[in-house]
Hints:
This protein is of the alpha/beta class. 29% of the residues lie in helices and 22% in strands. Helix 6 (161-172) packs across helix 7 (177-190) and helix 8 (206-217) packs parallel to helix 9 (236-253). The radius of gyration is 25 Å and the shape is globular.
Amino acid sequence: MTRPEGTPPAATGPTREPATGAASGAASARPRPAAPAGLAELERRAAARRGRPEYGHDALISCDRLVRVFSTDGVEVQALQGLDLLVAEGELMALVGASGSGKSTLMNILAGQDVPTAGAAKVAGRDLLTMDAKARLGYRRDVVGFVWQQTTRNLLPYLTALQNVTLPMQLRGGRRRAERTKAAGELLSMLSLDHCRDRRPHQLSGGEQQRTAIAVALANTPSVLLADEPTGELDSHTAEQVFGAFRTANAELGTTIVIVTHDQAVADEVRRAVAIRDGRTSSEVLRRTERDSATGQESLVAREYAMLDRAGRLQLPAEYTRSLGMAHRVLLELESDHIGVWPDHTADGAARTRGEGGGDGVSGGGSGGGSGGGDARGDSDGGGAGPVGGAGPVSGAGPVSGAAGEPGAG
Ligand SMILES: Nc1ncnc2c1ncn2[C@@H]1O[C@H](COP(=O)(O)OP(=O)(O)OP(=O)(O)O)[C@@H](O)[C@H]1O
């Protein structure tokens, strides 16, 4: 997991400082994890949960344990493996991930062009699993707009830019020709494309084609604009202009925008970039403006968060687990303000780790168990007290941390 340059360590990442004696001393006063809940307690919790609002009830896009399995020639590929994602109305966010991680599969589902195998997906109140063919058609026409990477896929070659933008309005119906022309002209103006109105796609540059495609996708004022690698075929300067068009649409029209991208420059421009790994959301980089209380100077600060899914699963970055020789099994300890994650130092745990070539797990290990937790980094994204939690009695309100050495051994 790469951390954005010049940013503080991930709020959820393990601390790298060696354990200190002071921390070791504090370890002896650590609260112990609660005992396993009895049946009565579990019933009480289930009853309490029934009164809670539905997962993602206030999100515009909500994916809950989304699964998509493809079967080809008797071979099954799990493209999405229980993916959770919430996107708030009005967000402009990016989805990033290695090739084959499931980004396009997710986008096709959100676009109403594919149906998930299991789980739940809702966009603007529409249930993407249960929609019938007619509802799906209406959804694609009215609720979502789509911009593809290949410019040729976005525009009809024999229509001018203006005609391309008016076409979706015409297909939907309900507006007179003059109204359609006026609205399409306004969209092109908003995206600085007045000069392209009467040109056909082959008379436009790649960037102008993509910006026209954004205008087409916005023609029926969708709630959500989805874009799959929209800058993939463009040079960096042109890509910047196309991203500017998304930003304008988001700011001027309030459209919620989700962009799949490999382009780090685009991912760096958005306030929230969600990484997908192996068909699940694995981490998020959140950016926000912070003001230095001493100088009053504002700067953009990026922090990386690991995602905790609905089942309480957390993907620890491979870079972190490798550096501490963590494999197969880790020791968890509930602290007052975070959860400690420790290498497994039991005899069979160490042997297993060696067998896997995962390192000895104790390099640089301190004798104390101080996790350096209780990090005072606050977070006004609401991430400081909340994102770390776990199934059952394990929950926390701070960074997950671990350090080489036995917890509480000091
Ligand atoms: N129609 C399909 N039939 C079979 N397997 C598929 C199909 N579509 C996608 N897959 C498989 O699902 C996995 C996820 O593919 P997907 O295209 O969603 O990844 P991606 O993250 O968008 O990759 P890229 O960045 O290269 O576009 C891959 O292993 C892919 O081979």
